[in-house]
Amino acid sequence: MKLALFDCDGTLVDSQYAIVAAMTAGFAAANLPPPPAEAVRRVVGLPLVGAVATLAPLLEPALHVEIAEAYKAAFHENRLLARVPEPLFPGVVEALDALEAAGCLLGVATGKSRRGLLATLDHHGLRGRFVTLQTSDLLPGKPHPDMVHHAMAEAGAEREETVVIGDTTFDMLMARNARVPVVGVSWGYHEVEELTAAGADRIVTDCAALPAAVLALMAPSGPAALN
Prior knowledge:
Rossmann fold, HAD-like_hydrolase_sf, HAD-SF_hydro_IA, about 230 residues, about 10% strand, DNA polymerase, domain 1, hydrolase, 6-stranded parallel sheet, phosphoglycolate phosphatase activity, 2 domains, 6 strands, about 45% helix
């Protein structure tokens, strides 16, 4: 089986405003100034506690956890009250349609919690499109390869039949560590040059180009580095 394994935040969904708002609330709950929005965007994709630790490395680990818990509460409340939009990127649904029509199974590997991922997919009516959902609250987060390995096992896909799609260097490195090809998307939260340096096999600048890039990497002539 062919498996297209997507990141969520920054790849399927433009969640940067929701993430920045929740991180601001998390730091405020600890009576700390919020990190800059650009710094928060840089850690999107990491497991939550690890993201907080990256933003504030001098804090005690217990405070990282406290901020992360306040973040989760704020994110959940903001979503319930529809305070901050989390739109799909243009063309996402059409790209998923095209990949499924070409015989691909779809999956997600994300730094979100499972609860957060399900809420996002349900909001956009996408939960039923994905056969495997991997989250960093249940497995080691990016760039560890375990989410890719578990996704392949659940989907019944081999390495040469699997492609990761993401917007951050964490996605690129996760795919490299799992020894599967990876497509970087330009509309997310890390720069194209960074994605290329981190190992992207292809870069796409819009969703219309995504299916062809993914399918090309599933061909027998895929990246020689994976042999």
